[in-house]
Design a protein that fits this description.
Organism: Araneus ventricosus (Orbweaver spider)
Radius of gyration: 23 Å
Signal peptide: 1-24
Helix content: over 70%
InterPro entries: O2_lipid_transport_reg
Structural class: mainly alpha
Transmembrane segments: 36-56, 100-124
Largest sheet: none
Number of strands: 0
Keywords: Membrane, Signal, Transmembrane, Transmembrane helix
Number of helices: 5
Length: 148
């Protein structure tokens, strides 16, 4: 039942277009509740995968590729504004962008953000994670020795 309801909520958010000639209140109500419905859908998916009811979706979301991307995403979240500021504030005059140049600029900036996030991950995040694992192992070893 959860999958049916959550799939309906996702369908409603994606394809449930309100009549553009409708009242401003209807349009505002639909657009204000849409993020809540998306959140309900993703909450159900998270709950279902966590409790073992995810099936193929859980297997897909558990791929190693997503683990790598998740480690870079937080660094990218922290650093993306620095990269964007550096890029856009380096121009001294306005630039007229075409659609193609916007796409190429976005790809260029995305690659820079990923590269800097990877370096940030290797310098800061990975050593801290290894330190946590080290202390966790020591704690587990001491706990195991005390129980024996």
């Amino acid at each position: 039942m959860g999958w049916i309801i959550s799939s309906f909520l996702l369908w409603l958010c994606t394809f449930g277009v309100i009549d553009p000639q409708g009242s401003a209140y209807e349009i505002a109500a639909f657009h204000s509740i849409k993020p809540l419905l998306y959140g309900c859908f993703f909450s159900w998916v998270t709950f279902a995968c966590f409790t073992g009811q995810g099936g193929f979706l859980n297997k897909f979301l558990s791929c190693k590729v997503f683990k790598i991307l998740s480690r870079l995403s937080y660094s990218g979240y922290l650093l993306h504004m620095l990269v964007l500021d550096k890029y856009f504030l380096s121009f001294e005059e306005f630039i007229d962008h075409s659609s193609l140049s916007l796409v190429l600029t976005s790809i260029y900036l995305l690659l820079w953000i990923i590269a800097i996030s990877f370096i940030f991950y290797l310098i800061f995040e990975k050593p801290v994670l290894r330190m946590f694992d080290f202390f966790h192992d020591i704690f587990q070893k001491n706990l195991h020795q005390k129980t024996n």
